[in-house]
Design goal:
The chain is α/β, with parallel strands linked by helices. The chain has 15 helices and 17 strands. It has helices at 4-14, 23-40, 56-64, 74-82, 100-106, 116-128, 159-169, 189-206, 226-229, 239-245, 247-253, 271-274, 302-305, 308-311, 398-402, and strands spanning 18-22, 44-49, 68-71, 90-92, 110-113, 134-139, 174-180, 213-215, 264-267, 278-290, 293-298, 316-319, 327-333, 342-350, 356-359, 380-385, 388-393. The strands form 2 sheets. Strands 1, 10, 11, 12, 13, 14, 15, 16 and 17 form a 9-stranded mixed beta sheet that branches. The chain has an 8-stranded parallel β-barrel with strand order 2-3-4-5-6-7-8-9, surrounded by 6 helices. It binds pyridoxal-5'-phosphate (PLP).
Length: 407
């Protein structure tokens, strides 16, 4: 997070509520991840997950660093194209792709098949266009043996997988070019080790020769504020730990292949890259006590911060308006009319009306998941340091909400 006087300055200049993107720290983290992985495996690259936070400014920043775009809908695909991406640097994933899929694969884009119907759709397109050489990858369903069945991808050695392979292989103008997977809620090292083993086995089995790419998906812990990190237990791996069980294993697997012919290896970070680097400044509008429960009402909401704010205590910086603000013990709650809009439980510290309540880790599944419920969303700025800031998302307004309705 930034320093208290920086937040005070920004809140004064732009008003609250306000999202603040810390682009210097974002890039620092981006390069720590990239360089740690490339040190072991030079053909590693980042494929940024648009759904986590598709702010165009941030997506363009990723593009400027050479990162790929990982999209899961035509809407996100269209954004990547608008930002100037070539199809070869767009990875189209997801279980229910839109009509842009055909254009994407016709232009040499990266696609990962989720299910048999999608495979048949691609076969039909290939049959209708014998002049095209089409490439596609496969999403592999990963079973870690932990009693959880992911609903995505094709199960190795299953009937569905056999059908997909048979149909794709029966066509001369289709090439299986890569394998992909993604798992959420499996951030530990063992899970990444096992994921890598399964993916290397799948690459050997389903691809003729060396794959063009292997994408390992997302789900690595990124950097976190200490108070937030402590809520995820001990043994939080860092990027070097992850690289050792992924990049080192892949390097070993292809040691007899010339380095330039080895597959490109992607991970698809969203939260790992962006969550920590957006904070949210809200203001305390009232403090009251009801039946012994003290509440601080803000002009923010859990909707601004995303689901994580209901499950964990986000990093919180309270900046009282007056120096002699009284110490309070309270729950910090949102502007909505929902009882469960409680953004922080059991805060204890100096607090007054007019305090700034700044929440960290507000970058993932926040802006993209904010409904227009009760209030349209607030603006976002990018902060470059030394008080320098610029708006990268304007506030939503009445028209944004109501122009789509018939009156
Ligand atoms: C959601 C998703 C990601 C990004 O996950 P994060 O937890 O936000 O890092 C990457 N790849 C795929 C296929 C996804 O669906």
């Amino acid at each position: 997070m930034l320093k208290a006087d920086e937040y005070k300055h920004l809140a004064g200049k732009f008003k609250t509520p306000l999202y603040v993107f810390d682009q210097r720290e974002f890039l620092d983290n981006y390069y720590e991840l990239l360089n740690t992985f490339r040190q072991i495996y030079p053909k590693y690259n980042i494929s940024y997950s648009y759904k986590t936070n598709y702010t165009p400014y941030i997506c363009a920043l990723v593009k400027a660093q050479g990162g790929y775009a990982e999209v899961v809908s035509d809407m996100e695909y269209t954004l990547a194209k608008k930002l100037g991406y070539k199809n070869e640097q767009i990875v189209y994933n997801g279980p229910a792709k839109g009509p842009a899929l055909e254009e994407h694969i016709a232009k040499g884009g990266i696609n990962n098949i989720d299910n048999p119907s999608e495979a048949l759709r691609i076969c039909a397109f290939a049959d209708a266009h014998p002049e095209l050489n089409i490439k596609t990858g496969l999403r592999i369903n990963i079973d870690l043996g932990r009693g959880f069945t992911s609903r995505f991808g094709l199960e190795p050695e299953s009937e569905g997988m056999e059908l997909v392979l048979k149909e794709l292989r029966a066509r001369k103008n289709i090439k299986i070019s890569g394998v992909h997977c993604h798992l959420s809620h499996a951030r530990d090292i063992e899970a990444w080790k096992k994921r890598t083993e399964i993916m290397l086995r799948a690459a050997d089995e389903y691809i003729d020769g060396v794959p063009e790419y292997i994408s390992l998906g997302s789900g690595m812990f990124g950097r976190m504020e200490p108070s937030f990190k402590a809520q995820f237990g001990n043994n939080i791996p860092d990027y070097a730990d992850y690289a050792a069980v992924t990049m080192a294993e892949i390097k070993k697997h292809y040691e007899n292949v010339k380095p330039e012919d080895r597959p490109v290896v992607f991970t698809e970070p969203g939260a790992t890259l962006v969550s920590k680097y957006i904070s949210f400044i809200s203001s305390v509008r009232d403090i009251k006590t009801l039946h012994g429960r003290t509440l601080a009402v803000t002009d923010g909401s859990f909707y601004n911060l995303g689901e994580v704010s209901l499950k964990k205590d986000l990093p919180l910086m309270l900046i009282p308006e007056k120096e002699d603000a009284e110490v309070k013990e309270c729950d910090i709650v949102g502007y909505t009319c929902l009882e469960y809009d409680c953004i922080y439980k059991n805060y204890k510290g100096p607090l007054d009306v007019g305090s700034l309540a700044v929440f960290g880790n507000a970058g993932g599944y926040s802006i993209v998941s904010k409904p227009q419920f009760i209030r349209p969303n607030c603006p976002m700025i990018t902060y470059m340091g030394n008080g320098e800031a610029k708006e990268i998302m304007r506030a939503e307004n009445f028209e944004d909400v109501f122009s789509k309705f018939s009156f």
